[in-house]
């Protein structure tokens, strides 16, 4: 069977430095909070689950599909 790798592109995950792993690790996004002005996402290390950063996605006129 041939697996499509396409699905991984949807993760849109950047690598961030993880203090626990002591190297740049791929991260996954986790929805942390829903704010009046948008969504607050947390970047978690895929290896140890450490929080490596946050980002806020604003709800604009262009309500983009995030998932
Ligand atoms: Zn880590």
The figure for the number of domains is 1
Number of helices: 1
Shape: elongated
> Any guess at the CATH architecture?
Single Sheet
Low-confidence spans: 5-11
Main β-sheet: number of strands, strand sense, barrel status?
4 strands, antiparallel
Query: Which bin fits the share of residues in helices?
Result: under 10%
The strand order across the widest sheet is 1-2-3-4
Class computed from helices, strands and strand pairing: mainly beta
What distance separates the N and C termini?
26 Å
Give the SSE map:
Elements: H1 6-9, E1 15-18, E2 23-35, E3 38-45, E4 51-58
Antiparallel strand pairs: 1-2, 2-3, 3-4
The structure holds zinc ion.
Zinc ion binds next to loops.
Q: What can you tell me about this protein's structure?
A:
Residues 5-11 have low confidence and may be disordered. The two termini are 26 Å apart. This protein has a 4-stranded antiparallel sheet, with no helix packed on it. It has one helix spanning 6-9, and strands at residues 15-18, 23-35, 38-45, 51-58. The protein is built from 1 helix and 4 strands. The protein has 67 residues and is mainly β. The protein binds zinc ion.
